[in-house]
Specification:
With 362 residues, the protein is mainly α. The chain is built from 17 helices and no strands. The chain has two domains: 104 residues, no CATH class; 222 residues, no CATH class. It comes from Altericroceibacterium spongiae.
Length: 362
Amino acid sequence: MDTLLNTKPMTKVTATVPLSKITDDRDMLRMAAKLTRDLSTPNPVIYWTDFLGSAAIGYAALAGAILVSSPWLAVACAILSVLALYRATLFIHEITHLDHSRLPHFRLGWNLVIGAPMMLPSFMYEGIHMIHHTRTRYGTVEDPEYLPLALMKPWSLPLFLLTAILMPVGLLLRFGILGPLSMFSPRLRRLVVGRFSGLQINPRFERRDPEGDFAKQWRWQELGASCVAIALIVTTLTGILPLKAFLIYMGVISGVAVINQLRTLAAHLWENEGETLNITAQYLDSVNVPDGFLPYLWAPVGLRYHALHHLLPRLPYHSLGEAHRRISGALTQDSVYETASYPSLRAVIARLAVNTMRKPRR
């Protein structure tokens, strides 16, 4: 610990030093692992209670938004539905990191309650997100979840957010039309799997066909989402499902997508130019927003500690707050660890926006 406490401060080093030139702070890595060794076991009670409670509130509020006659009450119900279902949906991130033997049937339960109804099965993230955590792929052209947004033109940021509004339409087309049709066309199937089967933001990333047990998971998850999408299309076109109910449902999914896209903007600094980065550099390109109440709403399920998550990706979400307290308490305020903490969502987005206005731009 003494070695770490005396390390040279690197406050906001990423503002002047390229990420690829940063050396690994091995003392910090060892200390973080040592202090959190007892926090790696997921608590089933917390997981199931949090997930099912969030989903129940979300669906109840959705029903309220559809059924109540008061416009103001309907809007309030819709907002509550978006926030609750957003929280429930973000457990997809936990599913990608879980040792499923420690939390049996959670993936199945999540897909039945959220994945299929929201047309967002977990295979859309599984097999994608772990590439983002790969030591040699983070921030490179092979990373499906990374774009150098800070190096792009200013209009890239609003465009990035606006695309999320159309996400429910895209999911409806993917699972209601393209997915079923691709079963009869190998060429279309390759396109659907490669381009339209992952929550990726890198347009150059192309997904490979699933294999083994994951392929079995993929099949039943896709079947469930397709059944929901086809049912929505058919019942709306035939008038069985009122157009108002359909639009509110799609609007809630769109709201979930927009908040998540905003959170994604604040998850990293997006300043890597495609170079391979070490763990410390990846950490410094990522963001913690540990203080305040609002991060519990826009970055729930532990994602307010996104930089810490990149440092210790195996920690369950309910352990991240305690891990942050332990590590922060063991280090000085000018340590490398504190460099990744920012005061608010606004501060992170403002930094990103300012960086897009600098030249040269992509």
